[in-house]
Amino acid sequence: MSSQLESLEQIKTDILTQNICPNLAKTATQLVMGDGNPNADIVFIGEAPGKNEDLQGLPFIGAAGKFLNEMLSTVNLERKDIFITNIVKYRPPENRDPTHEEKKAFWPFLARQLEIIEPKVIVTLGRHAMEFFLPDAKISQVHGQPKRLKVKLHDGRETSWVILPLYHPAAALYNGGMRQTLIDDFAQVRAIVTKA
Question: Of 50, 75, 77, 96, which is most buried, counting CB atoms within 10 Å of its CB?
């Protein structure tokens, strides 16, 4: 196992040991940490696992995940080229939105995942994932526009991350007009990675 994979496994162990969000852990089947390439240039971040994800332990495998796979193929990427995770690592009951407290509890673990992977671009999927990086932004105004953020890592080092906020693929499943917006925004992913 590579040292990156070991470090990512350690995050999972720490979440379980520290009993993060015990109320969610009680109702979820398992922790859903993430999936993909630990050396990826691009990390996709959603909000929380849904029912299928909770059962199979993998992020984005339901209908929204299928649409995400379609969009990846439009820019010649596959799941194995990227890393994909969520801010909240347990499924909230009845697929409700994660609360601010739940997102805050999991945030340090997501930050550690990003520090280990060191992506060139972080693509946030939906409002919940975006607001931790861009708290004052409205997704309707900033989707598809890359932003560079200065970040202090947990070991005190400073770095900068390129954030690309996108609508959540699930939004396109309920709203046909959103589908084309997402595809158009997605088309820039490769160019943004190259620039970053």
Answer: 50
